[in-house]
Amino acid sequence: MEKTKQSMEVIRYSKAFKMQCVRDVESGKSCASTVQRKYQIKGDTTVMRWVRQFGSGRYGKIIRVEQAHEVNEAGQLRKQLRRVKEALADTHMELALEQAFLAVACEELDQSLEEFKKKHAGGRRTRRSRPTRS
Fold first, then answer.
1. Could you give the angle at the alpha carbon of 24 between the alpha carbons of 20 and 28, nearest 5°?
2. In this predicted model, what pLDDT tens digit does every residue of 22-45 receive, in sequence order?
3. Which of 9, 23, 40, 110 has a 20 to 30 A CA-CA distance from 95?
4. Is the pTM value of this prediction over 0.85?
């Protein structure tokens, strides 16, 4: 018994052909599915994709309807995201500066960075976390 390989045909359409299909849809002569059947185009969404890509914008556009508070909310969220990104960038910069300062301080003290980290492995203590003397 001999096995046959099925090869998937890839069909490339010219821009002129795509534009003709788009004109048919936009003129109102046919809908996208009729054009698809008429020209035997295999993909279900291919013609609508062409209409969105090459058309005048009257058909196939996705329109989002929002209420006034939703528009403001989106703007506020964008501003908040920008502030958070700026704060994160500032934090990264501060960390880089602290690491560079620590490296220079260790060099001045003739101590390796690894030795310093081993010696002070407990982490930083704040004034509040220090034990009180009696």
1. 160
2. 999 988 888 889 999 999 998 889
3. 110
4. no
107-121 pLDDT, tens digit each: 898 888 888 888 877
Which pair of structure tokens corresponds to residue 35? Answer: 């054009």
Which string of DSSP letters, residue by residue, matches 19-65? Answer: HHHHHHHHHTSS-HHHHHHHTT---SSHHHHHHHHHS-SSSS-----
Which one-letter amino acid corresponds to residue 92? H
Shortest CA distance to 20 belongs to which of 43, 49, 50? Answer: 50
Cα–Cα–Cα angle for 23, 27, 32, nearest 5°?
65
How many other C-beta atoms can be found within 10 angstroms of the C-beta atom of residue 21? 24
pLDDT tens for 80-89 read: 999 999 999 9
